[in-house]
Design goal:
alpha/beta; 7-stranded mixed beta sheet; 324 residues; 8 helices; 5-stranded parallel beta sheet
Length: 324
């Protein structure tokens, strides 16, 4: 007699970069994180072994690519390799923040396109699918040969802004001309708010530094919501806040998906004159990087819903009202 269709089996795996996020996703899914032993050898090599059988499972592997980014990237690749060699049926890599996402094109000759290299590494390791939140540029989806679920944090961030500042005259501000498309989506979500952007010039030889700025659009006496995909050292965004306040904005709120917050970032944001800084927790923001002005929203419910849809062969697009 032939056996019936075997029951699908969802298994969740988490790297060591940010176990709290994996645990929270597990709670929303009502599953337990698969136990594993993971440690570093004396020379820095990483070893991972899962403590139970993964044969035939639908595997979801979460890792947050925070500093030291290369360690956590390598660990996730090794986890995928271990799953492939242990006969997992399908491997979905969940990287809320896509590592090397800023290196997505060549600005000058003899430069790498490291975002593509990362996609190739995961393909080689055995990943069937990638899930990421707010890629630095949408074309990164095409770097991976397989399905890529590109999630938006905007609904989460915009809900918070809408609830808190409903009575204010809002202008959505893109910190550079490249994010005006996103600013338009924000403006629609906030009920047709006007948009502005900061026109800035950079010296390609000086990373993380902006040379000059001017504001295009009406910001006077308005609450400006400065949106971005990530805040790294905070220099650009602090400069944008100062510029907007100089141009007569009544208040400035920063809303960004990924709080990388390297070096002096927290201090810069705290002293920037912004009224509030809103992030999601795609990357861990430890207590020493937090400040009284900072609000951190949980990305776990969104990741859990996406995992559920992928597992049940449902629609991820539908989570974003068909706009994803």
């Amino acid at each position: 007699m032939m056996a019936g269709t075997p029951k699908k089996n969802l298994m969740l795996f988490g790297g060591r970069a940010y176990p709290e996020l994996t645990e929270e996703v597990a709670k929303h899914l009502n599953v337990t994180v698969t136990p594993q032993s993971a440690y570093d050898f004396a020379n820095g090599e990483i070893f991972v072994r899962f403590e139970e059988s993964v044969r035939g499972c639908d595997a979801f592997v979460i890792q947050s690519h925070t500093a030291p980014i290369n360690q956590w990237l390598m660990e996730q690749l090794i986890m995928v390799d271990a799953l492939k060699r242990a006969s997992a049926k399908r491997i979905t890599v969940i990287m809320p923040y896509y590592p090397y996402g800023r290196q997505d094109k060549k600005h000058r000759g003899r430069e790498p396109i490291s975002a593509r290299l990362v996609a190739d590494l995961f393909k080689t390791a055995g990943a069937d699918r990638l899930v990421s939140v707010d890629l630095h540029t949408a074309q990164i989806q095409g770097f991976f040969d397989g399905p890529v679920d590109h999630l938006w944090a905007m609904p989460l961030l915009a809900d918070h802004i809408r609830d808190k500042y409903a009575d204010r005259d809002i202008t959505v501000v893109s910190p550079d001309s490249g994010r005006t498309k996103l600013a338009e989506k924000w403006a629609d979500t906030l009920g047709g708010a006007p948009i502005a952007f900061i026109h800035k010039t950079r010296d390609p030889l000086r990373p993380n530094e902006v040379v000059s700025n001017r504001v295009v659009g009406n910001v006077k006496d308005r609450l400006c919501i400065v949106i971005d995909d990530m805040v790294d050292t905070g220099g650009t965004i602090a400069g944008a806040v100062k510029q907007l306040l100089d141009e007569g904005a009544s208040d400035v709120v920063i809303a960004a998906t990924h709080g990388i917050l390297s070096g002096p970032a927290t201090e810069r944001l705290e002293n920037s004159g912004a009224r509030e800084v809103v992030f999601t927790d795609t990357l861990p923001i430890p207590s020493e990087k937090r400040s009284p002005k900072m609000t951190v929203l949980s990305i776990a419910p969104l990741l859990a819903r996406v995992i559920q849809e992928v597992f049940e062969d449902g629609s991820v697009t539908s989570l974003f009202d068909g706009n994803a």
